[in-house]
Amino acid sequence: MGRSTFLLITCLVIAPVVNAKQLAITFDDAPRAANGYFDGSTRANTLIENLSKNKVGRVAFFSNTQSLDKQGLSRMRLYDEAGHLIGNHTHSHPNFLDTDLPTYQEDFLKAHQLLKQFNNFQPYFRFPYLREGETLEKRDGMRTLLQKNEYKNAYITLNNYDWYIEVLFQKALKEGKSVDLQRLSNMYIDVLMESIEYYDEMAIKYLGRSPKHVLLLHETDISALFIGDLAQRLRQDGWEIIPPKEAYQDPVAEYQLNQPIKYNPGRIGEIALGKGQKKELWHYTLNEDYLEKRFQQEVLLLSDN
């Protein structure tokens, strides 16, 4: 076998592994307030149905346990009974920048006790706002507590502002505006795919490969409505949807940025920052003004004039 033939075969064998596009889907803030397009139970059932119909498999719901009133608990049980992972997102969703360490730790532990009732509860912790502590005391205090309770940091690699598109959707409905759901789906998915590809390219730049990604979404009406459309687009663009537990086996799970930071762009952004990148750690779609303009133009079909 000639050297050129050997190199070609090697590339064909290695390339799919290096450039494999895989991601897990996770939802924050469950059970999130539902008093707009859907009520809570309709949202939960619609989301579960669309996940199943589109063969998405297991996803993760990170819960704020202060919302586990009778209706919220019923919704979380639906996700649990459908086989989805239930993770800890604190009790009251505190902003770590405005909360002292003992109070934050107490909030985490309160959620831990309440979440143990679910069959599919797993010790994964998603920091609210992705803020892991802006001082060494806070950061290391939470790392120690997580380790003591055998928790894993449920980091994300694919960041976006899907929650703000939901805000725009619900606001338009409240104002009596007609919202074309197909146009909303198109905008929602295009925005998500733009940020997904951006962070994947960033990962390849700094890691030399596409890792097993973790996509951040929120438990919203637009997630329930369009998760099937998103799954189809992901597969169309060459992505495989994998379970969260598999994604968290990727080596990037072990990465820890040396210095504490105030605002966290996600694990890939952390790695880029550690490698010296100072700007554009947040994709341009993570901007409320930008999203509002697109919503006005692409969903409501309103011009700037």
Automatic annotation (TrEMBL):
Gene3D superfamilies: Glycoside hydrolase/deacetylase. GO terms for molecular function: hydrolase activity, acting on carbon-nitrogen (but not peptide) bonds. Keywords: Signal. The keyword Membrane does not apply. The keyword Transmembrane helix does not apply. Residues 1-20 form the signal peptide. InterPro entries: Glyco_hydro/deAcase_b/a-brl (IPR011330), NODB_dom (IPR002509), Polysacc_deacetylase_ArnD (IPR050248). GO terms for biological process: carbohydrate metabolic process. Residues 21-242 form the NodB homology domain. This is Polysaccharide deacetylase family protein. It comes from Microbulbifer okhotskensis.
